[in-house]
Amino acid sequence: MDPKPISPELSVSPQIAPEDIAQLAADGYRAIICNRPDGEGADQPTFDEIEAAAKAAGLEARYLPITQGKVSDEDAAAFDRLSKELPGPVLAYCRSGMRSATLWSLGAARTETPATILSATKAAGYDMSGVVRRIVNGGRTPTDTGDATHDIVIVGGGAAGVAVAASLKARKPGANIAIIDPADVHYYQPGWTMVGGGIFDAKSTAKTMGSLIPTGVHWIKAAVAAFEPDANAVILDGCRVVKYKRLIVCPGLKLDWHGVEGLVDTLGKNGVTSNYRYDLAPYTWELVKGLKSGRALFTQPPMPIKCAGAPQKAMYLSGDHWHRNGRLKNIDISFHNAGGVLFGVKDYVPALMDYVNKYRADLNFFNTLIAVDGSAKTATFKVAKPDTDPTEVKVEFDMMHVCPPQTAPDFIRVSPLADAAGWVDVDQATLRHKTYENVWSLGDVTNAPNAKTAAAARKQAPVVAENVVADMRGKAPVAQYDGYGSCPLTVERGKIVLAEFGYGGTLLPSFPKWLVDGTKPTRAAWLLKERILPPIYWQAMLRGKEWMAKPEALSAADT
Questions:
Q1: Where do the domains of the chain lie, and which CATH numbers do they carry?
Q2: Which is catalytic among the residues 34, 239, 307, 403?
Q3: pLDDT classification of 143: cutoffs 50, 70, 90
Q4: Would you state the pLDDT for residue 146?
Q5: Catalytic (active site) residue 307
């Protein structure tokens, strides 16, 4: 007997025996549902035996037998009603627990999201991929068979999705390509640091999605609910099915604002802000301009996150403004980082430390933000230093810039495409899925060990395009990604430390040292960030013009 909880009120289990009932009662269960028909196995007890033992232990028992592999919509509805009528918690069982888990999933589909259901059953050890379409369809068997079919389907219309679509169109103008994304607006997210520093206007970082989808590419304006890679299908909300010959997955990542207690309730007020949201970046600048004295907190969650330098970029630009206006002597800057180092590539740390010292910033490592009380203006951090017991500390603030915890999107995390940590499982060189050969991924959602930046997506898009086209021609992968990422660290208004690196922290500078020495703050790097990179993004990267992003040939050692 091994009950697995899949909701607060229901657990599922393989076949139980009458002698297990007393322990179930002791564990707090109050009712049992049998979903296994009598006589299915030579060694199984009858329901009458189970019911008698349940009554003796003070538990209720109900018989809802389901033939293996034949869970009807009516069965699911009956199970849902029964599990809610019985006193909980309830244990449901069959031969392995699979039928009971399926019944719960289809019943729960009326009120819960597909990701929530798939996550709960996956955690209990049950794979619901066989009924995912029914789950997405609210627990009912779909009747629509009008599937759309495309040569290439791209999930995600952000930087990675539009760029790879444009790169594919440049190589295969006649290819039948579709992008799936429900958003109306596309954002240039690297610009939000500059908005929070008073350099860019927020509106300059946004364009309509329709204006950026490459000509000839179909735009399916819908959200993805699930994947069926064995059937070459993407399931949309509402249970529409999109079939593909090749799939490219790049929906970005999820900002988990609810991962910090109290944060959602106070964002945008009480001095709490974040450059990780379009609508909040202008509030960052308002707070910076308005702060005359007090304590300013800047937080960074556990990795991975998009643009790992962004939390400290906000700190540097804020400190620079206060320095220039003579207020810095009255403001205490405190940086709380869940990690143990200021920046992951050591070559850039000396230059950054010069600015940490200039702004008199207090560095606090192994500090993870876990709660915010906006009205009281206090932040709670979990401190987990190596070889010490974790503690909690409360810190008062007058202004706080928060970088939220980040995860793979829910529909990715519970899909067959994900690794154990929830990220799309790819070969780090070819960006091809390790299991499904007609699936590729790029951008923030992959498990490749590179920095999650727009610059990384700019280099990845041509690699994926080259390899997809090679596959269409019946060839093996031809291009490789070296892990390139770029993080222009805005250490002061007018100067940037241009961090460029690849896998393993290898420095990968784009310019000669005499022009831009990436390990030092330079005016040239600032001009690149302020004036050159935005038009490169809008007019080159998203248009399939691969300026300084030509794919590198796959070496013989990697083939």
A1: 4-136 (3.90.190.10), 150-253+408-558 (3.50.50.60), 257-406 (3.50.50.60)
A2: 307
A3: low
A4: 56
A5: yes
